[in-house]
Design brief:
31 strands; 43% strand; mainly beta; 0% helix; 399 residues
Length: 399
């Protein structure tokens, strides 16, 4: 039986768009049969990704595993049953990259095709037809030559080898960048973007990092400078973020974005709602600030409100956009980054809505935070873990 989801979205959108257009690709590539690989073959660099309440990992053999919340089939194992330990995503091999949204999951295969599963009510799976969900992977229509993928809350992004960006799903705030606010069930090209090397999806905004180290953003506008009186409006046209150059990586959450510069420093900006502006006034503003106390950072990640930084020494540091929440030792109040205790030799980090992940050099995955849907992968649904837990029955690779 197909269940119907009623979602009430109240969106304030003031946007203008001149020129540009949408580029539809309706050609469906025939899926190639997955190659049979010898045991121990390395297809991909191991990776981790966290959705709202589920987790996705990519093994070095190109297979994908998942656990946690599964109401929309976002674990990809053909069911809608939650799992507290990793289960393998069905019929999916030769994967090189993964991404997670609110309740959908995305995979990029070595042949440049994109596959998706989970919630599809806004067309975020890119199948051409909106449906409640798909519990096994389906191919995104008309996409080939893809080199990178990203997922926002209810939308999805792809970067092609020619440096163009394509998007689909919810578009109420212009987060698809196609000069409209129309929902798309197949990929459309983001206007006026080229020379892109990385993409990121936020709650209702999208980010692109150019090869020249500049950042471009569209959707709900959380990035313009304080002197811009229209700083809280939305735009469906990619716009350069002022004051940022020399950027090597970017990550986004619900109301914020963080950037890692080539010098190892981290910079952040967020939406500031009325009554919470930096100067105590009522203006809606966005402030670009350097994250104090962070140097020698080599990678960043973000959840809904939690930010993570991985230093070159293999340690992990975290901070929240707000002032309190679960850190490395339980709920405390912090104004700056704190080190996650007991976590060393880390090679990658990821953040979900209420849980965080770390991949160690030995291929083991560690998690902390909320666990009411088994998203920590330790075989339980304990309410919360403020200390590190090892994901059960899982090793991604060894170095």
């Amino acid at each position: 039986m197909i269940r119907h989801l009623l979602l009430l979205c109240v969106v304030l959108l003031l946007t203008s768009c001149g020129g540009g257009g949408s580029y539809f690709s309706l050609v469906t590539a025939d899926p190639s049969p997955d190659p049979v690989l010898p045991p121990g073959s390395t297809v991909a660099t191991p990776a981790i990704a966290a959705g709202r309440l589920h987790t996705l990992v990519l093994k070095s053999d190109g297979t994908v595993w998942a656990w946690g919340w599964n109401a929309s089939g976002q674990l990809g194992n053909g069911t809608t049953t939650n799992n507290t330990i990793p289960v393998r995503v069905k019929d999916l091999t030769d994967v090189t990259a993964i991404a997670t949204g609110y309740s959908h999951s995305i995979a990029l295969k070595r042949d440049g095709t994109v596959w998706a599963w989970g919630n599809n009510i806004f067309g975020q799976l890119g199948t051409g037809t909106p449906a409640f969900h798909h519990s096994t992977p389906v191919q995104v229509k008309g996409l080939t030559g893809v080199t990178a993928i990203a997922a926002g809350h209810l939308h999805t992004l792809a970067l092609k080898s020619d440096g163009t960006v394509w998007a689909w799903g919810l578009n109420a705030s212009g987060q698809l960048g196609d000069c409209t606010t129309t929902k798309r069930v197949v990929p459309v090209r983001a206007s006026d973007l080229s020379g892109i090397k990385a993409i990121v999806g936020g709650y209702s905004h999208s980010i692109a990092l150019k090869k020249d180290g500049t950042i471009w953003a569209w959707g709900t506008n959380f990035w313009r400078q304080p002197e811009d009186e229209n700083s809280f409006l939305s735009t469906s046209i990619p716009t350069q973020v002022n004051g940022l150059t020399g950027v090597k990586a970017v990550a986004a959450g619900r109301l914020h974005t963080i950037a890692l510069k080539n010098d190892g420093t981290v910079w952040a900006w967020r939406a500031t709602l009325p009554g919470h502006s930096p100067d105590g006034g009522q203006a809606r503003r966005s402030t670009l600030v350097r994250v104090k106390g962070l140097t020698n950072v080599k990678a960043i990640a973000s959840g809904e409100s939690l930010c993570l930084a991985l230093k070159r020494d293999g340690t992990v540091w975290v901070w929240r956009v707000n002032t309190s929440g679960p850190w490395e030792g339980g709920p405390v109040t912090r104004t700056g980054p704190v080190r996650v205790k007991g976590l060393t030799n880390v090679k990658a980090v990821a953040g979900g809505d209420t849980h965080s992940l770390a991949l160690k050099n030995d291929g083991t995955v560690w998690a902390w935070g909320q666990n009411d849907f088994g998203q920590l992968g330790n075989g339980t649904t304990s309410k919360e873990s403020s200390t590190l837990v090892k994901v059960r029955e899982l090793t991604l690779s060894s170095t």
